[in-house]
């Protein structure tokens, strides 16, 4: 038996947003590794071992996956969204680079998925329809001054901006500071979308102006999108449409 | 019959990267509208009318879609990749905003897809594993000085960068200027990925340093990713792995 590792993106939550490529890989896997709520999305079956672990053990998970594959297992490391966007792919390559030379001969593939910001953007309209950036607001792995510098430069570049991990229990104050910086750089009229648990039964969308944005509008399941200076709303019955025109 | 419009992303090319949600919508549509090579990816069947048009008529296509839906048709506007990333969703909302009031009552949904930069990143490793931006290098709809300003600010923010539409016949010189700016801001050692026709039989990946990058390494089917200062290569037999670590 020849082992392999796929780092597979499960998309934001709905089954209809899981690619056939990922479904096929899960059907062939002997082992699935990942954070508890993502592993819970994979159906149990004979011959499949599920390894669910808690958050913040990304490197352990990566080493475990590579070790199993080197033993001949067919391993799927699962992330929500896209594994290459603030998820398990970089952690796996960190472990690969630091690990034994023979791991480099393994069959390793990243299988893309629908990442949270694109699912959220689609639900709201097309706020990322022009140039944009994606920033992880967690300061677990980078210093806060770098986040602040990126926010200011991104605002000056007039990018639309998507924020992952806006708020967690361990960093309750960071997102409030980010909102203050954005108000300073972009003004209070700028549109901001809070998109929570998109494509799941708990989905909630909320669009406000920056001067109405409060830190507690985001939690760990929220992706936040701030429009560029050109982003606009089309009002209509029900949810308005948030979009950034193609021209600037 | 109640009409609707979906703006659906077909992904980068492979069938395994089309979401079930998009496949279901195509199976229910009465009309498919889009650029010739994208409409060619939709199977013909009785009851389905295919409307393939040439490039650069995005607004005409959007008006056509909304007009048909208002007549009760079930219309799928197809884009490659994700329709919300430099594709048809913003064009459709431009047309909606400028069009008759009653169009706003239509059932309009954006169905996300695997966008080119994420498919390319997955194939190469995880170059977008940390903060990044996406810039459309076409100056059809925005002035060149704005592109240049965004490139410089993005480099100063130390984003990894993905470039869509790097090069076309009508703008042969723009991409060369972009590469010059990037060498100025990032230095010649920075890693750059040229990913052409990812997930199709014509797929080609090429990773070089900025001082080796030439404009003709990109064409209309290429997405270009420039690493951040932290982006690195893992050498191994065959294609090396390009990735950006999680920490910065």
From TrEMBL, chains A, B:
Pathway: Cofactor biosynthesis; adenosylcobalamin biosynthesis. The keyword Phosphoprotein does not apply. This is Precorrin-3B C17-methyltransferase. It comes from Sphingobium chlorophenolicum L-1. The lineage of its organism: Bacteria, Pseudomonadati, Pseudomonadota, Alphaproteobacteria, Sphingomonadales. Its EC number is 2.1.1.131. It holds the Pfam family TP_methylase. NCBIfam families: cobJ_cbiH. Residues 5-210 form the Tetrapyrrole methylase domain. The keyword Transit peptide does not apply. Keywords: Cobalamin biosynthesis, Methyltransferase, S-adenosyl-L-methionine, Transferase. CDD domains: Precorrin_3B_C17_MT (cd11646).
């Amino acid at each position: 038996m020849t082992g392999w590792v796929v780092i597979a993106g499960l998309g934001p939550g709905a089954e209809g947003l899981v690619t056939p490529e990922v479904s096929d890989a899960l059907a062939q896997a002997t082992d699935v590794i990942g954070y508890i709520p993502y592993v819970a999305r994979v159906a149990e079956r004979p011959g499949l071992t599920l390894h669910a672990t808690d958050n913040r053990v990304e490197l352990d998970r990566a080493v475990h996956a590579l070790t199993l594959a080197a033993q001949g297992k067919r391993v799927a490391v699962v992330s929500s969204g896209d594994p290459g966007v603030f998820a398990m792919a970089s952690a796996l390559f960190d472990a690969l680079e630091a690990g034994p030379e023979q791991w480099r001969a393994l069959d390793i593939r990243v299988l893309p998925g629908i990442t949270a910001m694109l699912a959220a953007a689609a639900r709201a309209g097309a706020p990322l329809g022009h140039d944009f950036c994606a920033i992880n607001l967690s300061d677990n792995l980078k210093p806060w001054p770098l986040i602040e510098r990126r926010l200011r430069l991104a605002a000056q570049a007039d990018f639309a901006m998507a924020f992952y991990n806006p708020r967690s229990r361990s960093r309750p104050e960071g997102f409030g500071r980010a909102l203050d910086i954005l108000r300073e750089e972009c003004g209070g009229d700028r549109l901001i979308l809070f998109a929570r648990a998109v494509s799941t039964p708990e989905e909630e969308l909320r669009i406000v102006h920056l001067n109405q944005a409060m830190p507690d509008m985001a939690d760990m399941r929220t992706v936040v999108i701030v429009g560029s200076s050109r982003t606009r709303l089309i009002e209509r019955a029900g949810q308005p449409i948030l979009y950034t025109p193609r021209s600037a």
